Amino acid sequence: MLYLAAGHYFAVQGLSFFKEKSPTDVVEARVVKLLPAAAGAKFEQIRFEAELLSGRQEGVKVTAAQNKAGSFAVGRDVAVGDKVLLLPGQSSQGEWSYAEHLRSNVLMWLFAVFALSIIAFGRMQGVNTLISLIFCCLSIFAVFVPAILSGKNVYCWTILTCAFIVNGISRKTVATILGCIGGLVIAALISASADSFLQLTGLVDEDSMYLLFLNPADPVDLKAIIFSAIIIGALGAIMDVAMDIASALNELAATTAEPTRKMLLQAGNNIGRDILGMMSNTLILAYIGGSLTIVLLFFAYNHSLLYLLNKEMVVVEILQAVIGSFGILFTIPFTSFICSRLYVKKAGRRHKSGLENKI
Predict the structure, then answer these.
(1) Fewest 10 Å CB contacts: which of 10, 112, 140, 327?
(2) CB-side exposure of 306: number of CA atoms within 13 Å?
(3) Among candidates 167, 163, 227, which has minimal Cα distance to 192?
């Protein structure tokens, strides 16, 4: 909590360009009935009557329109009973404008079911998992994102955020932290050096362009954003591998009479080999799934595989998967080595204490 409060305070320093913009005042509404199209409209549109569900005019019925110019960008056609977001009327007729379908309420119910399922299965550990998830999200959206937008050093804040997410106080979590750090250091070194070899610009899509011109006086370092995306994207898989190995070796050390460092090190590496293939596949499939639309478009409109593999957008996606896999690869021996040092000392003391009690 201290990190989130202090981090947010420092992160938002320098966000003055946001103060010049007023937030968009969207209002929740329910579509009551569809209306005939307006005569002489320049664009195809769907006119409808809606009842406002929030704001100062809650309960008031208004006329609104959903413009269909570039229909792929305005969502599904509205229908009676739909809950939508409306923008206050800007036209001479005072009609309100369709912004989006209201989906956040469904997402909240989905998250509630997810949370209850975790608690039902994990009990107290499930509660701890939810708390950890909440703090993880807050560290990203309340600290990391404002820090980047305010012009702070992306590399430093990436490291701080990762250090905060990988946290704990038990012997098992200490082993996990140290193992993660080993994997992340390797991933960070490869990612930081990739720019000099691949001549990256950071302009991977039109969103990057918008981000670049968001604050022309102090533009965001787009190459640093790539570094940050790779490291944070790999962190989840690296944490998973490190915790799996640390937990398995902790149980092995606890149930073995006289565990040795060599035995735990070999066991950790053997477990890691089984995990490595699945986690690398998981990373690669996740990134392919995230960029599948772009890849399909490139294949459809340009049949040159050489061009596709040299397109910066595709290169960055491949980098994320490969560097993440490197991080996993080096996390395995690091975590196994650390566990073999921490757990044997603990097991040795417990075994000695047991002999003394018997005597």
Answers:
(1) 112
(2) 0
(3) 227
Asked whether the predicted pLDDT for residue 70 surpasses 70, the reply is no
CA 87 to chain CA centroid, Å, is 29
Where residue 54 falls (left for φ over 0; alpha for ψ -120 to 50; beta otherwise) is: beta
**Greatest CA span in the chain, whole angstroms?**
99
Q: Are strands 96-101 and 83-87 parallel, antiparallel or unpaired?
A: antiparallel
Q: Are 262 and 249 in contact (CB under 8 A)?
A: no
How far apart are alpha carbons 5 and 16 in whole angstroms? 19
> Locate tokens 């009557």: which residue?
49
Digit-coded pLDDT (tens) for 333-344: 999 999 888 888
* CA distance linking residue 222 with residue 215, whole number of Å: 13
Strand 61-67 and strand 96-101: the pairing is: parallel
CA distances from residue 23 to 88, 98, 101 in whole angstroms, order as listed: 13, 17, 19
Specify the long-range contacts of residues 99-105, CB closer than 8 Å, at least 24 apart.
99/24, 99/26, 100/75, 101/75, 101/76, 102/28
Cα R_g (the chain), whole angstroms: 26
Give the mean pLDDT of the chain. Answer: 79
Work out the average pLDDT over 256-264.
Answer: 86
| Closest of 211, 230, 215 to residue 155, by C-alpha | 230
pLDDT in tens, 279-299: 777 777 777 777 777 777 777
| pLDDT tens digits, one per residue of 305-359 | 777 778 787 788 888 888 888 888 888 999 999 988 888 864 444 444 444 444 4
